Amino acid sequence: MEILDEFLVKNVNPFGFDEDRLKLVLYFYLILPFGFIFRKISDPSSRLVFNLLLGLAFTAWLGKGWFLFINAVTIMIYIMMRIKNPFYPVFIMSFIALTYVHIYRLMYDYLSQKFDFNVIQMMITCRYIYYVVDFDKEKRNSLLSYYSYIFMFTNLIIGPVPYKDFMKLINNEVDQTHYRYSFALKTFIQAVLFSAGEVFIRPHLDLDWIHTQTWADMNTIERNLFLLIVAVAIRFRYFCAFKHTQAGMDAIGISYNPETKQCDKFQTADYSYEIEKNALLKTSKWNSLVQQWLKYCFYDRLSKQLGNSAFYAVYVISAIWHGFYLQYYLFFICWAIVNQNMKYFFKAQRKFYFIPQTIRHFLAWLYSSILINQFALAVVLLDWDLGMEYFNKIYWTPHILTGIVFIFFFLTGYGQRESKQKK
User: With a threshold of 0.85, does the pTM exceed it?
Assistant: First the structure.
C-alpha cells in the first residue's frame, strides 16, 4: 500500500494534493466506473461479492491501519444481533467504537478534517444502526449480505442508505426499465464543477480573511454579508464529496426511483440549500441521508417515548456522532434553537402577513442563512479558542439574535394559537 501511495503522489498528482486528499479524489473517481460494472452483474450473490471486495479494498486503502479495528467491530455487531431486542445494545456498542475513533483523532490528529478512517467509521456506524432497525423487516440476513452492506463501496465516505433498500438493489427488485447511464454522468459532471470550485475558488475565499486588515475595517453588517459569500465557497468541498458519492449511487442504481423515473430516491444533498429560506428544510437538504438516518432510526423511535423532547435528543445524538470538539455541541445546541424558532415563526406567520410576501421570504432566507453560516463556520475552525475569537469579531450577533427570538416567543406565546395554514 505504501509503495502504491508513494507512486500515486509522485506520478498521478497534477494539483499537488497531499496523500490523503489524493487518495480520496481517486476513490471518488473510481466508484463511478465500478458502479457501472456493478450494474452489469445480475446475479445477487455475485453482486454481494463484487460490492464486498471493492468495499473492503477501499476501506483498507483509505482507512490505513484501522482496517482490522473496523472489521473487529463489524463482526462484534453481527454477533450482537442474536441478542433479544438488539437495538440499544448495538447502538451503545457502535457508538463506543466510534467514540474511541473520535478520541484518537482528538489526541493524535487534532483539528484534522481528513476524510479517512474517522469518516469511514462514522458511515459504517450509520449502517450498523440501519441494519439492526431493518433486521426484523428483512429476512435475508446472511453474513455475506450483512458484510457487503456494511462495506458498501459507493458509500464509504458519504450517505448511508437503509439495509432493506440495499437488498432490493442486490436482488433486482426495483423496476429500472427507464434507468439511463446519463443520470450518473450528469451528477458526475456536477461533482467535477464543485471540485473545480474547491481547487480554484475556495482558496481565495476562506476564513483566513478574518485575520486581514480588510476584515478589521468592516462593520458588523459588512462582516455578516461578506461571510455569506465565504460560506458558499467553503461548502464547495462538501458538495464535491456529496456529488461524487451521488454519482456512484446513481451508477449502481440504488438512487433510482421508478415512480419519477429519475435518480432521486436517495439524495446525498440538495444544492437548493443555498436559496432555501426555511431553516428546517435547509437542515434537511444538507447531508440529507444522515438526516434521514437520524429520523428513521432515532427520531421515529424516540418520539414515541419522549414526545417533543425527541427533537432535542436527536440533536445530541448527532453531535456525539460528529465527534467531541466543543464547537460541535455549541453548534447543535444553537441550531436546535434556531429550528425551534422557525417553528414559532411558522405558527405565527399570520401575524406577519402585513409584510409583502417577497420581503417576508427574503427576510426568512437572510435569517436562516446568516445564522447557519455563523454557527457552522466556527465548526469549520474546530478549535474552541479560534471559534471564540471568531465570535468575538462578529460580536456574538447570531447567538444574541437567536436567544432574543426564542425568549420572545417562549415567554409571550406570540401567535402560537394561530392557524397553521402555510403561505
Answer: yes
